[in-house]
Write a structure and sequence with these properties.
By secondary structure, the chain is α+β, with helices and mostly antiparallel strands. It has helices at about 40, 50-55, 60-80, 135-145, 145-155, 160-185; strands at about 5-10, 25-30, 85, 95, 100-105, 110-115, 125-130, 195, 200-210, 220-230, 230-235. Helix content is about 30%, strand content about 25%. The protein has a five-stranded antiparallel sheet.
């Protein structure tokens, strides 16, 4: 990526080593600050800015621009041309025809992935999260985890293990939403899936427990991946319709 003010520490090596089973995923990560809000960055946008950008505070503007720059870098390495995703009415990125992708940020870190695929058949979701504090465990247990997940990942665990496990489950479900929302065409919540297995630097197994569409019903199984990346939890989910 050519140097962009306010965008640094660029990395294009996907650290989720298990994704070797899922080739042709292009990854870009970096760190950003509000200096990215400049004419140089705006000149590199290939799609119009959404209306919400102009009323946003600088922090949100910087997040938006960093995400589009990271996504465009991944697309350029995949396809050979520079394209910044547009923005749908729901605020989600709009990817070029024949491509799918996902963007996430945490604090001043940004990650984006892109791959070939049609949204009706395959999805991809990536998420980046700071490890929760001990004070946040109860909040996630009460709002994100299902009873079986509490039994597997919280009961009789150390505080550190609970912090990691709750962060992993939250992040995996965020990745799952990003991957499936374009396919099912509707919003769903953390209660729609249960994480049966997860760990840092390994595979995760998620099961859908609600009917989300005619093709993604309760019992649909999804494989996820997780790792610790730049001291943050990063997860990715790549579901394919018709494969359980």
């Amino acid at each position: 990526m050519n140097m962009i003010g306010g965008f640094s520490n660029v990395d294009t090596q996907l650290p989720l080593y298990l994704v070797e089973k899922r080739p042709n995923i292009y990854f870009t990560a970096g760190q950003f600050d509000e200096r990215i809000i400049c004419d140089q960055t705006l000149a590199r946008l290939s799609q119009p800015l959404p209306a919400c950008y102009f009323s946003a505070v600088n922090k949100r503007r910087a997040e938006f621009l960093a995400g589009r720059m990271a996504a465009a870098n991944a697309i350029s390495r995949l396809c050979g041309f520079w394209h910044t995703p547009g923005t749908s009415s729901s605020g989600a990125p709009v990817w070029p025809q024949g491509l799918i992708g996902s963007i996430s940020h945490s604090s001043n870190h940004i990650v984006a992935v892109a791959r070939r695929g049609e949204q009706k058949n395959v999805g991809i979701g990536i998420d980046l999260e700071g490890i929760i504090t001990a004070d946040q465990i109860d909040l996630l247990v009460n709002t994100v985890l299902l009873p079986d997940e509490i039994d597997r990942f919280v009961v009789n665990k150390s505080v550190w293990a609970m912090r990691i496990n709750c962060t992993l489950i939250f992040s995996l479900k965020e990745s799952l939403f990003k991957a499936l929302y374009p396919i099912v065409g509707k919003r769903f919540y953390h209660s729609a899936a249960t994480v049966e297995r997860c760990s840092l630097d390994g595979e995760a197994c998620l099961h859908i427990v609600e009917d989300l569409s005619s093709t993604i019903k309760s019992g649909f199984q999804v494989t996820g991946y997780a790792c610790l990346y730049r001291e943050l939890v990063m997860t990715m989910v790549v579901p394919r319709v018709g494969m359980s």
